[in-house]
Design brief:
The protein has 209 residues and is of the alpha+beta class. 24% of the residues lie in helices and 30% in strands. It has four helices and ten strands. Strands 1, 2, 3, 4, 5, 6, 7 and 8 form an eight-stranded mixed β-sheet that branches. The model has no long low-confidence stretch (mean pLDDT 94). InterPro entries: NUDIX_hydrolase-like_dom_sf, WH-like_DNA-bd_sf, WH_DNA-bd_sf, WHD_NrtR. This is NUDIX hydrolase. Pfam families: WHD_NrtR. Keywords: Hydrolase.
């Protein structure tokens, strides 16, 4: 028996878009945010792919990262659906955008990165991937407002200065030293060790509580 709606139409009577996934993988390189990109026939783009039959969005995103960027085991999450009918010149394509953040040293050595200023990329990306990067940066900032280093962009042990500089890079602004310390000190645990600074007084090392 074929299901039909109140107008008598079956599912096959409705036009169907293609469904894709794209993943914005953010990292910090030097004093800048950057996003992982790959080469495509439209130029630089985020790792992405079309969803296969009976495949979940998450599995498709993991497949895109593995096959196009040689990344496996990365923790990522959905940012939202991008559904502008004109977003892809190949046809009607919806994309579920995903976001992630990872320390640069954990990326493959061959990873291509494009720098980000505030929330925009320095180079134009294909399709609407610039918009996806903006959403990924805003999402990253939301997580770092709530926690010291939820994505483990720093080593396991770090100084308060290193943590503050990480936040300043993510938020593209400077933070007063004392205010920043008061905000996050309760989220940290002192290790009892000090940094091996070449100049100046060695600073106390912390871990995320």
């Amino acid at each position: 028996m074929v299901w039909r709606d109140s107008s008598g139409k079956a599912l096959d009577d409705y036009a169907r878009p293609s469904v894709a996934v794209d993943v914005a993988v953010l990292t910090v390189t030097g004093d800048r945010l950057a996003v992982l990109v790959v080469d495509s026939d439209r130029g630089l783009s985020l790792p992405g792919t079309f969803v296969h039959p009976r495949e979940t969005l998450r599995d498709a995103a993991a497949r895109a990262l593995s096959r196009k960027a040689a990344i496996t085991g990365l923790d990522f999450h959905q940012l939202g659906m991008f559904d502008d009918p004109d977003r892809d010149d190949r046809g009607w394509v919806l994309s579920m955008a995903h976001g992630a953040a990872i320390a640069q040293e954990k990326l493959p050595r061959t990873a291509q990165l494009v720098s980000i200023s505030d929330t925009g990329t320095h180079e134009r990306l294909a399709f609407d991937h610039d918009r996806i990067v903006t959403e990924a940066v805003l999402d990253l900032r939301q997580r770092y407002r709530a926690a010291a280093d939820p994505d483990h962009l720093l080593p396991d042990e770090f100084t308060l200065l290193e943590l503050r500089r990480l936040h300043e890079t993510i938020f593209a602004q400077e933070f007063p030293k004392d205010t920043f310390r008061r905000r996050f000190i309760s989220d940290l645990v002192g290790t009892g060790q000090r940094s091996s600074a070449e100049t100046g007084r060695p600073a106390e090392l912390f871990r995320v509580r």
